[in-house]
Predict the structure of Transporter substrate-binding domain-containing protein.
Amino acid sequence: MLRSILAVALVLTLAACGGEGTAASANGETTVAVGALSNGAATETSITVKTVEEIRAKVPQRIRDSGTLKLGVGALPSGSPPLQYIGTDHKTITGSESDLARLVAGVLGLKPEFQNSTWENMFVGIDSDRVDAAFSNITDTEKRKEKYDFASYRKDNLAFEALQSNPWTFTGDYRTLAGQKISVGKGTNQEKILIEWQTKLRSEGKDFVISYYPDINAAQLAINSGQIDTYLGPSPGVLYQIAQSQNSPNPKKLAGTHSGAGESLQGLIAATTKKDSGLVEPLADAINHLIANGQYQQWLDAWHLSSEAVEKSEINPPGLPLTNT
């Protein structure tokens, strides 16, 4: 029953697909207006890529024949700048994730077609083949590898956000979380890490409170009002929110960082496909082509994410362990 409900919800979200925008193709070349409609979150930069036939030939036949790469984005209900959100035209999906997907589609000689949904329904889209690949700040984890293949493209760093007036700072030791009220996105890897820290603290006779809100905007209001002490989320989104708050009555600060793969491994963000679909290799090859030819760095620079650069895209690299140890 639950799967049926989710599937219906996914169909409903497809009507909310943003315009493809920002990408123009001609004569085997695609020009992407990276950072277009971003409301100042990026420095708009035009990047042109050519179709690479050797990589395109590895794309599954059904996708090549369709001429379209169906791309999942989990930006409902309100998105998460600068990663994924609706642009200033109120319809086009923008953000660092969708712009990289547009560039990858150009290398593969395919038209990008975005399907925007909630985070949970994005994975339902992959499972049901409504989506070929998702570019949506998805962390490579060992649990997710049971169902999905990954082509990494960015470091995954997490960050704590708090009011500047709050003296609390996360030092890397989970014990510093004792007594805190913390918000986190439901179903995310950062939630998994928090819950494991909470389990450890409880075994030591201490605890903290985890609170959930429908979107990052609601979490920001909860910080402002004192309902929570801190928010844990992807570093790019946290840094964006901190920058936006500086001239407000409630300026925020960076209150600590952590790898998205836990204590012993650098986390990685990856393009995500259904396991054994045959698409992950050409995706990794396309990302590595962008790296080798400088367009990847241009993309990072435009979105101010250079600190999260990787040297190469890897297929199914080590991810967040089944237990965060």
Observations:
- The longest strand covers residues 148-163.
